[in-house]
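[User]
If only I could read backbone structure tokens as easily as an amino acid sequence. I have put the entry right below:
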Amino acid sequence: MNSIAQLDGNNTVAVDLTPDEALSLTGVEFNGNHEVKAAAQRKIRNAFEKTFNIQKNHPTD
């Protein structure tokens, strides 16, 4: 899925991450628990979508 972000001059996004989530985004592996990184990525994606105007592109046939 492709998306277009239209930035409104606001150039910051605030996200509350646990220490494990923050570490997982730096490349630290949590063996047997891949949900840590996935949860952090979801939080960032949701915060980005709330902060900026996101338009999802639908593929054309």
Summary: Residues 35-51 form the longest helix (17 residues). The helical segments are 19-25, 35-51. The radius of gyration is 14 Å.
